[in-house]
Automatic annotation (TrEMBL):
GO cellular component: cytosol
UniProt protein name: Luciferase family oxidoreductase group 1
Pfam families associated with the record: Bac_luciferase
An MF annotation (GO) of this entry: oxidoreductase activity, acting on paired donors, with incorporation or reduction of molecular oxygen
Amino acid sequence: MKISILDQAPISSGYSAKEALEASAQLAQSAERLGYTRYWIAEHHDLSGFACSAPEIMLSYIGAKTKKIRIGAGAILLPHYKPYKIAESFNMLATLFPGRVDLGIGRAPGGSAEASMALSDNFLEGVRKMPDKVMELLQFLNNDFSEDHMFAKISASPLPEISPEPWLLGTSRKSSLMAAESGTAYAFGQFMSEKDGEDIIKQYRENFIERGLIQKPKVILTVSAICADSTYEAKELALSSMLWKIKAENREGNDGIPSIEEAKNYFSSLDVEPFNNRHRIIIGNPKEVAEQLKDMKQLYQADEIMIVTIVHRYEDRLRSYELIAKEMIK
């Protein structure tokens, strides 16, 4: 069973952004050693708790520290940018790391309204033009504009021998239909969606149009999971993630991923039950987590599972991925 990693480059309380990014590089190296299929890193802008604002730069660093694992962005937030520059950046990566580069495309803002304004002046206009931006980006990656197109005489150089593999990331029917009609692979973010993902993925498969990018529909299901040697320990680790999400939802001050002690104090002071379905996290020992991941893969008819893990200590995050790999990668 193929499993992969989505890294949001979390910054834990008491740690710096530099330490978070170094932990991300170490995680990518460990993922390769453990047999994970891909390592993707997310893009965020001026959000406390997230360290990576430029996936393409981080991927060049990680690519140089690994040898065979696929590396990619999860995702480049396309409404902020011109497709030509994104194609150039990822063609550059694909030239440096042949046959290893994925280009995940998303349309979320990735930060505040002020950050969006600083990036691109009119984010909503970029969202409106998203279908056109996606098609233009794919044409630059394929270097296949028609002869009468205004961009026919230019290329997103350097042109790699193996183009980046394009993925559209999303949580809605709109995103799955865009992926299908564009002929890209599709990554459904179950960990951040309350929607009926099975039908969304089914819609993608049923409407897929082959455009020379990939031969058939390809689906990643991205889930949140925390694994430890015991269920009790996994639940303790998950407290940090749950408190962090609650603070983010309530727009409370956020100093990074809180420690277990901070989370325990918070929940006990409010007499709050932290474990409920709205957080959509798989929590347990290796056998429990593996069983749930396999069930979800079957339920959603996914080709691959991608796992995002948010805990306070970077050592515990790595341990979670190690335990899952030992249980699921044979």
